[in-house]
Fold these 3 entries.
Entry 1:
Amino acid sequence: MAKDYSALLNDEGLAVKGVNAEEKYDGAIIRVYREEVELPDGKHAHWDVVRHLGAVCVVPIDEDGNVILVRQYRYPAGRVMLEIPAGKLESKDDDRLLRAKKELKEETGATCEEMICLGDIYTTPAYVDERITMYLAKGLTFGDTHLDDGEFLTSLRMPLEDAVRLVCDGKIEDAKTQAALLRVWVMKLEGRL
Amino acid sequence: MAKDYSALLNDEGLAVKGVNAEEKYDGAIIRVYREEVELPDGKHAHWDVVRHLGAVCVVPIDEDGNVILVRQYRYPAGRVMLEIPAGKLESKDDDRLLRAKKELKEETGATCEEMICLGDIYTTPAYVDERITMYLAKGLTFGDTHLDDGEFLTSLRMPLEDAVRLVCDGKIEDAKTQAALLRVWVMKLEGRL
């Protein structure tokens, strides 16, 4: 039986408590706070916290074992990146599975027969609360794309193995794309894809 | 020979140009801007951009094949997370390799004989410019830890395979930790660790 590591996720002795939150910026997709917190030793500190609704991303695999990727200019990085299809939630109670299906359709034109949840990532949990739920989509059928206003991207297919090689060679640098592609690759190597 | 995908990373037709940046918050570890940009169709839009110095993270593997992890409370997520050792740069020209060695020592007490670069991730490139360089550390020797002031964490060892299982079971949710552990696991499965 696998060892039980659940005690490692216990907060005891490490928890940090929020004391006060001062809003510094209310933007289009983020809110930024300077928060006063109480550390485990009782001392107080001030931390930057970025709050975001969260997002979803999808690894779409076609019947030939290709993955569908999108090319999109990422302004903060200053260049085009290869990523899996993804999109942010539109409200706090947005349904993540439905949002994933919608983003897949909008960005690649694909609908899927099966959407398997691969769990979540926190993109950079030291100062951002964004949680992205990852999915694997199988049984793809392709139709038209419907990009959001102001969204510019193109989609393409390549063998999953080639995409994993681009991750390992440093050509795919987006964190969610690396994590999700490697997860699916490990599933394939273990015969579970 | 592997197919050449380099043309996919060409910006042509997708580039977004910065027109104006209005600083909204100058925090302890981030600066936040509302930026006016010119889209590929010539239209203008306003985007939130968070700027951060960047960071490093390390997958430390001991001679028995264990990985060293740290437990740390992540305030934006509201709970303790299991992560690989990591730390942010302290200046724009901070040396990433030296910073990685320093963080490894501070958080786990380990020094290493070999530090292998695994490339970079952008944590969430739609609105944050943070780039984290990932390393694999081998040939570990353990001494004292030296945590930063206000830093509370504990370190532990477990077999790499168990850590990968925790990733796949959704118990390790930090993006850099997922990406780096899965990378090292694929290296191991391919006989390159």
Entry 2:
Amino acid sequence: MPLELTDAQRDDLLDELHRLLNYNQPSEALARLESMHPADQAHLIEDLDAEDREAILLAMSDERTASILEYLDEEPRQVFVDGLEPERLSQILFHVDEDLAADIVAELPDDQVASVLALLAPEDRETVEELLDLPEESAGRWMSPDVVLLQRTWTAEEAIDFLRREGPDASHPFYLYVVDTERRLQGVLSLRHLITAAPSTPLENLMARDVISVPVELDQEKAAEKLRHYNLMALPVVDEEGRLVGVLEADDVLDVQVEEATEDIYLQAGLSVDENPYTPVLVSLRRRVPWLLINLTFGFLSALIVSSFEGTISRVAALAAFMPIIAGHGGNTGSQTTTLIVRGIAVGEIERRDLFRILRKELAFGVSYGLVAGLLSSILAYILEGNFWLAVIVGVSMMGNIILAGMAGSLLPLGMQALKVDPALASTVWLTTITDWLGFVLLLGLGTLFMKQLGG
Amino acid sequence: MPLELTDAQRDDLLDELHRLLNYNQPSEALARLESMHPADQAHLIEDLDAEDREAILLAMSDERTASILEYLDEEPRQVFVDGLEPERLSQILFHVDEDLAADIVAELPDDQVASVLALLAPEDRETVEELLDLPEESAGRWMSPDVVLLQRTWTAEEAIDFLRREGPDASHPFYLYVVDTERRLQGVLSLRHLITAAPSTPLENLMARDVISVPVELDQEKAAEKLRHYNLMALPVVDEEGRLVGVLEADDVLDVQVEEATEDIYLQAGLSVDENPYTPVLVSLRRRVPWLLINLTFGFLSALIVSSFEGTISRVAALAAFMPIIAGHGGNTGSQTTTLIVRGIAVGEIERRDLFRILRKELAFGVSYGLVAGLLSSILAYILEGNFWLAVIVGVSMMGNIILAGMAGSLLPLGMQALKVDPALASTVWLTTITDWLGFVLLLGLGTLFMKQLGG
């Protein structure tokens, strides 16, 4: 059974590891972790500080370090790898799957890449170099390049003998792929089909010919969608000539999906994917400030809009009290619409042709809810200020802004999609900027028009 | 090869299907789809209107309808199923995997559940009933109950014979699970290991005993995390007695993950998971209005805060122009922090003990960026209004609100987590409410204190 620790046990163990490493007893520390699954070891090691992490990982055999690296998060892995000598690193990489090896080499400082590559075994080096040539967010970068290839001219018996000889090395042989002499993908069969067939049956007669595959350069998100669309456990990956170069498996796609979901959520807030709560302040500033400054600029435009109504405000200061609620509530209503649409686009449920259907629905929603919220705001305004005309203006502005927010909340992400900009890119932030402007113009504009009735 | 259609081809095909169904030629329509993968057929059928959808699905054989249902989205599936007679439905369910059958029965109106269950084959009924007894978001509801079970007393040869007899029916036999006579999980082995072993080897000697499994009632999100943590393609699911009841596979977990990500994203905007852009207006209103009204109430509090400063505003109306930018920009900065932390908690990178480390970092960030944004706002305020003291007050309020926003942005999600409330629950919305209040109090409070200097 894998070790399941309570929080307290975990803290105790971390303290003990820290103490042992401090007293320079790394082999004692290693012994404490020995019985655990490498994934659990990696999870604990992530919680050590960088110095302890380095000490314990360096004390391990190359093979054990390699098994931990397979499970370590990207950031601690990178910190550890950056501190290694090229010789040691290449020895560790020897025990690591080629796709992870490529990821690790890709993160190295430019001047170290060549020296580490030179130290790898020739076949490994070739595979890693090929992987590094692929675009960073492509299916190829996530696939396992280790695939069991069966020749279409073989019989079932020959194929089984081949599998026996090859041993259970390749990671997850779920589907078996059949290729021609040029390694071009010809068909697929399951191991079960293979063992239940008569030994002399040619693979050609056993295999299914309709193989769903993806090109090696396909965007990782598209590849993930395809695997999910067809409900598959693995997708073969082929190059331009149709040669089988690897397999993208469902567990890799799980990681793609988590990365893509994080990206979408971060984009909404103008954050870079590499950001996390522990990013050093200076790095955070460099990454976050440009977006915040763009944001600030749009805020200045709000200030300009409001300041152009200063005359009105100085005469009817009560209007200022309702600025935030009208602008903000429009933003909240519209954000719901934008969120629905951005997510719908991301999971492939919404396409551009659905625009009018969505606008109709949002208009109906906006009018209905606008009536409710407008009426409530009117009542509150009357209670607070005792001014009938103010109450009317507040209610009408609230209703108007909610209706416009629904329209803007639909048009903005669909427009971004049409312009081939990722609709996840901060669209609720732009939306609330728009609803701020609309809200201020409505409320203060009406206030100016009805200044006399307001008693200003 | 699967049919890959361009948008135009797709629209043409949909038009043609609509025309054929309109002219009452469903078998012609069916023939158009025949060569396609059921997943692609389902995707096209989803784009037909409900009436056409029903017509084409009803014209299919039960088996074909069943294969389409496996791929159809939940909403159109439910609409179609709701229109079926219990007899027809039970015939279709006969061809459907039991886990999907349970999902379909679970969505039926209460008065139909019993009659449909009564019409199922006895073994199917029993499995479906057992699945229906499980909590809705549990691992058991996502698992495949069809598992290949090998007895620990068997030899490799006996196991292979058993697999041959069973045929390639079970969905994805990636790992083979070994059980005792009570069906209790004892070990796991790969099909590859099995065929490479000497025929007389007992399974006991072949199997790995450290099997990572999940309890059937475990929350789906936790089960998904476990599969991902250990990088597995499948997790065996066991009941309280340790009996193997099903397998949770990586492709099921992909669906869990998409659902959970949608849930998190929707929670942020106060939306229900069942909501989508096509939800009927009345249903949307019922679901969305309660949250919006809570929101509106907090907006009224903002109005109260601002209205208590009406005296100040009527004398220095220029202050009103800077209310939105100070409140809004604090909200944007703090939202970045909240987004990072909420996501970090969701993917398990952040725990409560990290609070102080995060607060320190956010304080440093807030002070540094606060200085920049404060200075810029001061300059703008001076250009716009030519009032030195106003410029100072705007700059200080901006800086103060940014620093406070960073603190609030960290404390809010971590506090929600401590209170066992999902931190994804609209935390950026609460945060921007807080930053609104803080911004108004800072700006208008300082404005009131320095009224004389402002020339009010």
Entry 3:
Amino acid sequence: MFEATKVGRTVDKASFKLQQEALRTQLLEVQRELLQTDIPVIVLVSGVEGAGKGEVVNRLNEWLDTRGVRTFAFWDETEEERQRPRYWRFWNAVPARGKLAILFGGWYQAPLEQRFQGLCNDTELDAELNRIADFERMLINDGALVVKFWFHLSEQDQQARLKELSRDDRSRWKMLPKKGRFHEHYHRYERIAERVIRYTDCGISPWYLIEAEDRRYRDLTVGKTLLHAVKVRLSQPPAVEPPSTSSHLELPDVSSARITLLDQLDLSKSLDRQTYKSELRALQTQLNELAWEAYNKKRSLVLVFEGVDAGGKGGAIRRFTNAIDARLYRAIPIAAPTDEEKAHHYLWRFWRYIPRAGYITIYDRSWYGRVLVERVEGFATDVEWRRAYAEINQFEEQLVRSGTILLKFWLQVSQEEQLRRFKDREQVPYKRFKITDEDWRNREKWPEYKAAVNEMVVHTSTEYATWTLVEGDDKPYARIKVLRTLRDTLKTALTREIEDPGSRIPCAGKRPKGR
Amino acid sequence: MFEATKVGRTVDKASFKLQQEALRTQLLEVQRELLQTDIPVIVLVSGVEGAGKGEVVNRLNEWLDTRGVRTFAFWDETEEERQRPRYWRFWNAVPARGKLAILFGGWYQAPLEQRFQGLCNDTELDAELNRIADFERMLINDGALVVKFWFHLSEQDQQARLKELSRDDRSRWKMLPKKGRFHEHYHRYERIAERVIRYTDCGISPWYLIEAEDRRYRDLTVGKTLLHAVKVRLSQPPAVEPPSTSSHLELPDVSSARITLLDQLDLSKSLDRQTYKSELRALQTQLNELAWEAYNKKRSLVLVFEGVDAGGKGGAIRRFTNAIDARLYRAIPIAAPTDEEKAHHYLWRFWRYIPRAGYITIYDRSWYGRVLVERVEGFATDVEWRRAYAEINQFEEQLVRSGTILLKFWLQVSQEEQLRRFKDREQVPYKRFKITDEDWRNREKWPEYKAAVNEMVVHTSTEYATWTLVEGDDKPYARIKVLRTLRDTLKTALTREIEDPGSRIPCAGKRPKGR
């Protein structure tokens, strides 16, 4: 694979100067054009040690208008990052639409190094590479352009380059842990790099392999290739995945064949005032203790509350938050996205609030809006909300794998009960703000929402993140069910160790020594 | 995920009869329509034990016109199949365009069962699921419609069904290895099934989960869903992946920046007559012995010969085949595809000739036509040949993982040497048939072919299947280089064990006990 990066390509000084000028002008032009579009551009700069990744990044920053460019290196990790799921730092680096981000190594650096150091095997590496491919596909489906450069050197050239570098900085000489083993190391690294590239070199985000020996050839090729990639992208519709042929069951035309999960809920369930009070008190005490235990064990908690309008989400959330220390949790009400949020992938705004290890985030409505309101109201296209199931599953899997405890509640009430509550809200002054015309309009789409909820549960109730459906007509019953589920889940989860990341997310949690 | 398949959906007898009639007529209609298209339809029938997969298949065969349908079960394996790479049997089951194939379990059965029996772990399962997703994406990109059904039963229903079945056939009772452990087994199987479905439920080939308790509901839903999926597919363009934004380097505008691998070959290399003769004899003797050793060790050999016209492929192949027993090898000259071959994916015709364990297939031109002649002559679209690199890599990886020894030769001659040979061929009567107008036309596209070859080597020279570039101006030199490379590779490969399939293709080679 790397043969063609060792053929000795060069560019003379005069040609470089001449061609650089034209290139710079054009780069600045497409950058201005980009600003008018909804395309985020991600440039990944990777390659063998000594190939000059830093030089390339400096060059790009010199050529581009830096106001539209942010550069990220991932070689060290902040405390903030260490306390969150692994991809959190990458989500923070994803540029807004119209902007560029240059990423040193990006999501490839850690798996590569960790495989090289023998911290994971090939099968584990492949699993991580498939996660990376999913991640990139998700960004690209959302309109992003991902440009991946790999800089390569022949064995001789690398050895010479590293020697040269080590004069200024001894640490760069690490490819040569023991003199004489360079040859072996070079080939082992190349084998792993080939695997990484091969598994992630798909049509929609290809790798560009570049010979790095001649700096002028290297930089000019990077600039011209980036320019071309952006130009092509500007002239083409985004490379979204095509719609599925059809993804829902065609049901027989009898009502007994159309029963849903929501139909199965016994909404008449209730709890008497007395039992409610005493149970509430007991549960709140336990939850307070469990929240502190989670804090001490550095386990974070993410709660998702979804449900029909006036389903009782707010009341249930308050019964929980009342019980716990205000320093430990954050409740995020999800309304229409801000401008900044709109300029990113729809999951971006939820990643923002992912709690640090030991803390709690409560989402009052959530990413499930994509497959509920956005689906029913047509804010998301068919293709968009259909692929969201897989995207959401991957997102939640990342949370859970990194040790987050995740619970999802759906609060259901009957149509009659909802009507009663709406009317009630209109009567009571301090509740009036809670009812809008939109609520009445949503109510008319009851069957559409029911179908959407049923499909949502089927696709996103997973072994690591099941849905709890709550019978909500009786508020006391619903609240106790929520709190009890919370307590039981927390109790069980806190006695378990975080699944050894090495067993399923290889190349994750494990960090290279000395970093 | 399976919650909604346990809600008790039913269809009464009268409704079934009525709706079945309309359904059958429509199914036959779309089947006729299908025949006029280039869409192969693959129906996968999977699900928990006792859910009635066999009944569903019978029903579909009753409803459809069986002349356009073939049914495949994979529960046992023929000797022919066992001696070839694992996916060979699935390639044989892929229907021609316009036809249907119904596959019991398909490529999902083995990984599921093997994970259930503890023969592989989750990470290994995931790796296999990603391979499956790639395989399906490849078929779908080629125009196929893949419809995947999963039939599910609640724990009680399954227990009852298995008891009922075991009256006729004791073997079906295997879900209950020890009475009392049914509950545990049920949930373990469900957890694995969920994982399998979750990882392979992508937009372009969704899973349809169907409650299997009520036979009428089950069958009618299958029929209607299949009908709908085919109808939607008939009304839509195929769900091909979009073109990549750009996948080649933009090179600086100086000739020193455009050197390719082929430019680096020293075509003046030659061998004197004397050395050639003695080396040839020695190599042929060794190769004969190695071919028998491979036969005894059940290792198969696949040789790919590509090169410019008049590059000397035929001559090199004959020097090898002359040396070995005619029973051991098969030489396949690749010309334009037959009608039957055209009705399948382009890789299909190469899978046909994959040798049994211990045998040799020599491809005189090969699947690389896709990224060479088909690219340069425009027989394949940009999107098609670009994604072929990854498809070819996956194909070759399967061969090598299953123990096949794979070698690929590119025979290069200079333009002058080619001209000399063309003219020579026109002079010599028995060589005249070897030269056509097409050869002359191809010659004019020399630069395009050179670029295509360079890119082909970059993308498909992998750790498990490297390209050998052969300097071909001097025939003796070229032939000896081919034979020597063959000998050295065979020697090394035959002393190594086949990589334990379990370490990288979990769920592959290992077969469930008692099958």
